[in-house]
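Sample intake — DNA mismatch repair protein
Collected from: Larinioides sclopetarius
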Amino acid sequence: MSKQKTVLDFFSRSPAFKSPSGEAATSNTLDKKTPQTPTSSKLPSNVIVSGKKAKSLPKSPAVNSPSNGTQAKSKVSSGAAASRSSTPKSTKRQSNGNVLAQKGKRSKNTDTDDTEEEEEEKTPPKEIKRRRIVVASDSEDSDEYKPEKDDQSSDSSADLSDHFSETESPVKKKRKSGKGVASSLQMFTNPKASPSGSKQSNGTSAESPRVNTTSCSDSNAETPVSKQKPLRTSNIGTGDETKGSNTEAREFSHEKLDFLKKEYIRDKENRPSSSPNYNPSTLYVPDDFKKKLTPAMRQWWNFKAQNFDAVLFFKVGKFYELYHMDAVIGVKELGLVYMKGDFAHSGFPEIAFGRYSECLVEKGYKVVRVEQTETPQMMEERCKKISRSTKYDKVVSREICQITTKGTRTFTYQEENAGVSNNFLIAIYEKPLEDAESPSEYGICFVDTSIGKFTLGQFKDDRHRSKLLTLIALYPPVEILYERSSISKKTFELLNHHLTGTTKEVISSFHWDSQRVLRFLQKTEIFTKEDDTIEYPETLMQMLDPDDKFLETPLKQYELAFRSLGACLRYLQQCCIEDSLLSMKLFEVYVPLDEVHSASIKDEIQRVSMKNSNNFKKHMILDGVTLQNLEIVPMLSSGNAEGTLFGTMDYCSTSFGKRLFRNWLCSPLCNPDMISNRLDAIDDLIQIPEVVEAAVAILKRIPDLERLLSKIHTYGFARSQHHPESRAIYYEAETYNKRKINDFLSTLEGFKQTSEMISMFKPKLNDFKSVLLKKCVSSEEKIGHFPDMANELNYFEEAFDHEVAKKQGNIIPSPGVDKEYDFATAEIAKTIKEFDAFLAEQKRALNCKVSYVGTGKNRYMLEVPENKKVPSEFEFQGGRKGFKRYYTKETKDLLARLTSAEESRASTLRDITRRIFAHFDENYKMWKTAVQCISTLDALISLVLYYKSSGVSMCRPKFSLPSEEVEPHLEIIEGRHPTFLKYFTGNDYIPNSVYIGPKRDTKNEDLNSGGRLVLVTGPNMGGKSTLMRQAGTLIIMAHLGSYVPAECMSLTPVDRIFTRVGASDQISKGESTFFVEASETSSILHHATSNSFVLVDELGRGTATYDGTAIAFAALDYLANDIGCRTLFSTHYHSLVEDFCEHPSVGLGHMACMVEKDCDCPALEKITFLYKFIDGACPKSYGFNVALLAGIQKNIVRQGFLKAQQMEYSSRLSKLLRRLLSVMQPEEIIEVLDKKYKFFAVAE
């Protein structure tokens, strides 16, 4: 008999789990040669068949529910012993290889499908074996399977495992080849029924592993050994055999279902995939198909129909199971291994949820966690209350407790630790406008679910979507929400082009208008006070119409923002996390960097002039194009920081410090006073190196306090009884409690260390010049902002025994911490004291030995010698030889009081951990302020460490304010590109000087003569682009408040940096190279001011030479004459040099090179790049010399050079004729040429 058929045969016995097609497996699928167990009727559910003998096991009483932590032990024979580590214990295999001996009693605490066995189809019983459940280690810090001591397993792991019949097998580890180590699923082996118990003819093992030991992040780890032929999974689409699969090559049953086939698939509304309203996240499952399913599998298909685009982690006992197409994904992406059967099935234990869900989410999948929300006992009680229950009632309830995507990860105790970067979920709503300059208006809302902060905004944008591009550059989303009709095709193409790896989720909740969103917020009751009035955070209040007393109408300029907020809330509600995030009450307003608020958020947004320091904008504007072109930060949240300015300057020790430092780089300061304050802080910190060193050591030990505060808020949040999470049944609750407590203790220790670190700065406080630094490290009310946390930290230090809490996974509060617990404890002590007093009284009254006996509900019975006469009020309860036991009215009353007090204390203890977390969260503002101070200090120290580690000369940039006497200028002496310094040391990197400002005479060859616009020429590969990027990067560093790698740097503030560098098309948007150039140039010409800094690199290269020259000329002329901003404009169009060489605002500079004239052909001359920027124009671009360096053959270069000469001569002749025509008539020119050179006569 085929071993695989044995599994199907087992399925046929239990209607609780038929094959996925709905048909029960029948006996005709079995090997005809396999001997059958002779019997005339079906076997009881507790009978185990082996060979020809069936042994009935005694029934056992129900074990405790999983929450009480008790475990009923069962012992299996060596033939069924399982290992859960890479080095399993050796076990003895019995001769028949499949006898499952069971010691103790089997749990009745099973799921519905055990109940359904009463309705089994009457098919001949086949040879089956009971399964032994192998559970994961209870260790809190391990997801791996470990061998059980003495082969013991918990019956609590089996109480829900049997309900899916034998398909619900435990996760397996690899076995030693040839050692005969048995599997926990060895009951799937169909042994030969010979008396000798001979081995199977094919010599294969019968174990059916479910999960690979390989971690999803470790592709090189060993996989389980299996001698079975691997299954061919056609729907994976990789063409490779599934790693570790252990079934024969054939199709899975779900691949045969018509309603899953591409041509027939429909959504839950029965709309075909060709319909414009088709919803790919749902699936239509025919009713006639569902009627054939078992109750549990019917549950699964109902969940799948609502979440067709997600992977279901379906809870069965202690395991999360994956079925059908989800199992295929689990095998492919997670290294799980298929269970035996005619349908795809795999799984893993509850404790490993975080590891596997994180792995899938990182790969772009959506994970749905389906939990059991009642125990089998609760199910039985529910069924008893139903007058006529059906088989579909006899299954434990399950509910979706959370849906996890890249944008909705909260990183709680069940999930893996978060990375450093923010994970933004953003909703976008677009409204078209009839305005050529601003054709679109956007409402946006983005939220970082790891810290629970919502940010809302609304703005009009130009046709290039410049503000939207800047938004996604500053806050790179990992997931985008939009509705098909709510964004234009151009916006959709833009998002696809710039966020290729970002998940785009189509939703249908934008029909929530702004008023409905506000009504939804009110219904959550999160913002409802005790007197039933609504109190929103101040930020939201300022966005609402003050005339609406019901707080249901936003201001007109925020209607789209609230619609986007509604989309976020609806999506978060589907993911079951909206309540915990909203309860943080963190809301901010997003304002594009080129817009500035006036005194009130309700006033119109105005542009601010830059006449003096008080009117400077707070931040410099860096749009998405500039951030990308200058490589300031990684453009994606998960991008590599290597090669960026952030990667170069980031010496932060904390995760929240790194996030703040990234924000600093994306929006540098613009106000000179604020910049000077940061520079003063760096100077102050440089003077105390020993304190900085000690502070860094402490900062490296501090956890991510910002995210831990969000975690603790979630742990302390009292979820509504309507939330499914409040009903979820967890078998690893103790482990999860330990993780929560460890997070809490880690947070307390982190804040304790920050307080100790701050105290180190106190002796130096009076020496600091920087007001910013004083605010970060001082707790004095008039000086600093760092909060005094001593009282709160001391309170939690004494609130409970930390070591005991970590070990036991629960908190026992100290006296005075919780009034309810203290009252219950005092009542218990008082009652026990009264018991003792009553006992002493009875001893005196009876004048004999009297004692209390009994346990549980029968405690405190008075035990009296039987020969002793007792009062008539004594109620006889029983006795033992020589003694009788009694209750009295007094003992009954005292026992009732004691029981009530104990129940009250137990109830308090069940919620005490949450209440302590909630008490900690009451001071959220204080903790958050401390985090802000520490993150600022960490970022400042990062600037200090960068300064010390640069290895080159660094200077403090000098800012001066523009005025009538001081024109906008920029001067950099011997500057170096900061990122390149990591790759070039010593004399390998050549520094350069740049001056942009009013023209001046200079005797220094290494310094150009200036001009508000400097026209940069030079040979190809001569360093023009690097010089321009270097200037822009150093300006950003100066505005960041950092020292810069230069001998000297002085400038007036820059309000915005524009870049038009590089050449590339954008095929996905249908934009050619020149269109991209023209679009970026258009943005510059529209938004640049006299205080901006512009970099234009070879404008016009993407089109014809004459067109490109003309466009470059016009743009250069507009920048020089109309805008007058500081500009570096590189070009290979040397005619521009001739046109602007005399312009008063245009200066010339070029990258120097050295040419060795060692041959007759100039194109073959050797060129040496000097990478030095000097005054004047370069005579030519030396393109042929560079072509020769690139390896183009000399004859081709020479031919090209000759052609270029001809074109140059023609160009010169044309130019000469144009000059002549400007002063002479054509007839006069002909007459002169004919008389002097007989030109036309010769021609005739």
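Post-analysis note: The longest strand covers residues 1146-1156.
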